[in-house]
Amino acid sequence: MLVELSFSEEKYRKLIADIGEIRKKIFSMKDDDEPLTAKVIERRAGTKLSMANLIVELSNACTGARDLLVKSHEQNIYLQGKIDAVNQMKTQNDQLAKDLKEDVSEMKNNAIKTMKEIHEKKRSFADVVGSSTSLVVPMKKAMKEIEKDASKSRNVVVHGLTLSGENEGDDRVDEIEEMIDQVVGAASATDRKIEIEDFDFLGKLGDTRRGRIVPVLVKFKTDDDAKLVMKGKKYLKNSSFHNVFITPDMDKEERDKQRQLVKEMKKKISDVPDKHWFIRNGQIVSRDKIPAI
Fold first, then answer.
1. Which residues face 285 on adjacent strands?
2. Angle at 60 between CA 28 and CA 45, to 5 degrees
3. Contact, 180 vs 200, CB < 8 A?
4. Can you give the C-alpha Rg of the chain in angstroms?
5. Highest mean pLDDT of the ranges 56-70, 120-134, 272-286
6. Residue 158 CB: number of other CB atoms within 10 A?
7. What are phi and psi of 220, to 5 degrees?
8. What pTM did the predictor assign?
9. CB atoms within 10 A of CB 277
10. Are 76 and 2 in contact (CB under 8 A)?
11. Coil vs helix vs strand at 212
C-alpha cells in the first residue's frame, strides 16, 4: 500500500520564511551585559557565521527534501497507475476464467447429454433388432439382391458365337475375345469406345473345334455401355453376326420366364403371321408389319 505524503508547496515556503526570520534575529543579536571587546565581537561574528552556514545547510537540506518528496509523489502516482492496470487485468482474467469455467461446464453437460442420446438410440436399435430377429435374414437377402441387380445391369449375354476351328487352348480364348469385341462394336453402332471389363463362359467350353459355343457373359464397366449394346443389338441382323443374339444377364428364374415368353411369342407368330411380334419389358407386344415396297 502506498504512503500518502502531506508535504505541500505552502508548507515549504513557510518553512523557508521561518528560517529567514531566525537568521535575521541571529545577526541582530546584542548582549548588553558583556562589554564589546575585540574578542567578543570576533566570537560573536564567528558564532553568527557558523549559525548562518548552518541555516544555509538547513535550507539546502529542505530544498533536497522537497525535491525528494516531489519525486516520491510522482513515483507514487506512476506506481498507483500500474497497480490500477494490474487490478484491471486481474479483474479481466477472473472474468475470463469464470467464462471459461462456464463454457467447459456447458460443453461437459452437452457431451454427457449426447452420450446419453447415443446410448438410448443404440439400446433402442438393439431392442428393435433383438425383437425382430426374423427381419435380419430377409434384409440381408434383399441387400444381396440389390447388389446382384446392380452388378447384372452392367452385363449382357452373347449367344451363338461360332469358332473357326483353327485355334486351340489360349488361342481359342483370344479368338472368342476378338469376336466379342466385334459383336459389341456392331451392336453399339457408335464411334464411342465401349469398355469391356471381363467376360466368362456360362458353362464348360469343352473341346469344340468348330461350331457354336456356350453363351458368354460380357461384363461392361458402366450401365450405360450395357444399355447401349442392348439397344443396338438389332443391328446384328445386318452384319456378319446375324446368327448371334444378345440378351440381358438373367438368373435361372428370369431365364425360365424368358423361355416361356419366347415359346408363347412363337405361337403368336404362327397364329398371327401378319403382325411383328417381340418381347419388351417382360411382355409380348406386336405391331403391324411394314409392307415391302
1. 278
2. 30
3. no
4. 59
5. 272-286
6. 26
7. -95, 165
8. 0.44
9. 19
10. yes
11. strand
